[in-house]
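USER: Please consider what follows.
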Amino acid sequence: MISLSMKDGPVGAWLSQHGAELRLSLRMTAAALAAFALAELFHLAQGYWAVLTAVIVIQSSIGGSLKASVDRFIATLGGAVFGAVVALLLPPHNPVILGVALLVAIAPLALLSAVNASFRMAPITAIIVLLGSSTQQAGPVAAALDRVSEIGIGCAVGFAVAMLVLPASAHHLASGIAGRALGHLEELLAALIAGLTTEPDAVQIAALHERMRAASALLEASAKEAERERRIHLASGPDAAPLARTVRRLHMDLVIFGRAAVRPIPEPMRTRLAPRLQQVSDAIGEFLRGTGAALAARRPPPDFAAVAAALDGYGAAMAELRREHLTRDLSDEETGRIFALGFGLEQLRRDLEDLRSRAAEFALPAPVVRGQSNIA
């Protein structure tokens, strides 16, 4: 019988896959409506600025919304004050003076925003204050106060909604992003190892590297947002920055490893090493999948024994090939590739062990069973 339940159908599947996006859209909608209500309540001259600001400062996490709110308000305040001072010193009575005032106001603020993107709103606010005061009866001080109050209300509403409406912690998001990044690493490692025994797919490998770079950048940004939450006690838990650094190092390990995977390794080494390389791929892939799931569920990471055994097995196979002098006839280029392969695997072992330590920091403590004694 065909189920008519939305939960079991394609709509339910889409909703489960895009839950974060739906929550973000609901927060944006709530922020826009709340800012509009306050703008009407306080009879703001241009209330749409409050509504726009409330929507703009809503980010995927509380930490991101906090940064966006603070940055926008400080930039608006600085731009409004500077624009008002310029307008008082150079009253825009005619287009020539107004042009000079715009030059004086915009040039330093544009340089400031170029140096620090957090002040991107400052020159825009100064322009609004100057042009608004030149076309309306309100003076520059009144125009600046209006702009600051409108943007301030929008910032306050946006951050309040981020805190109260389906709040998303950057710390929690970071663990999920890290899990997805580990999935990309698993795919990349499998593609690289396959390229050692068969012809490598250069297009696929390049795409996986690009996907991994994007995931690392997103994880580092999320870790910074999580640190802001921790700093003002909006969230608790371990620092996500070390986890982000470890994930980036793992990607760099695969970059090194990839230098040996530009083409298959020569025979007869290929036939002898292929089973060992497949064991390494399977063991590390399983470890990365398990660690990603552990991060998402806040549970301890999987055991490292299978990975260590697979890497030790590869090392033993290489040692055996050297004892049989099968590496003696390799060219300098092939010898360099084999060395890069071994070095990449050693670096990978070290950073995978570090990944396990970082993931263990995210695990919640085991529940204590009432009445159970820890005394042997």
Remarks:
- The chain has two domains: 21-164, 170-362.
- Residues 332-362 form the longest helix (31 residues).
- Confidence is low (pLDDT under 50) at residues 1-6, 372-376.
